[in-house]
Amino acid sequence: MQKVPVKVGTQRFSLALLLALLFAVAWPAGSQTSASQEEKKIFADKCANCHSEDGSGNTAIGQALKAADLRSPTTKKKTDAELYQQIEKGKGNMPPFGSSLNKEQINDLIAYVRELSKVRPSGKKAH
User: Fold this and answer.
1) What is the pLDDT of residues 95-113, one digit of tens each?
2) Whole-number Cα distances in Å, 47 to 3, 18, 22, 107, 113
3) Domain ranges in the chain?
């Protein structure tokens, strides 16, 4: 059998391509986990007192202020822009968070609210 010569440049390119693919596959999974944790932390710090951990609004403060059930069809119908505006500027009894949260954090909260709205009150996933 005759050995085919392989140029060193081709080997380096192949190795670089393989590493890039591995990095591309691994990176989103790692960042998704940390973003999810960050979303939960922001929600727990800023929202859960009124909206509760599950988004139902079933807390003493939430009931007194008539906090929205974030899992409701009404909330699901809102656009991201509407949710962003409400979080940033506040609405009714909800205070504004635009001065204490940056754009990325507000967008993280919107993503988290969207996840909450996929869970039915019984804990079953919506179809």
Assistant:
1) 999 999 999 999 999 999 9
2) 66, 43, 37, 14, 10
3) 33-116
Which contacts (CB < 8 Å, 24+ apart) does range 121-126 have? 121/54, 121/56, 121/71
CATH number of 33-116: 1.10.760.10
Give Cβ neighbours of residue 63 (< 8 Å, ≥ 6 apart): 57
Residue type, 118: K
For residue 107, the one-letter residue type is N
pTM: 0.67
Instruction: Quote the longest CA-to-CA distance of the chain.
Output: 83
Instruction: Specify the residue for token string 């409400």.
Output: 86
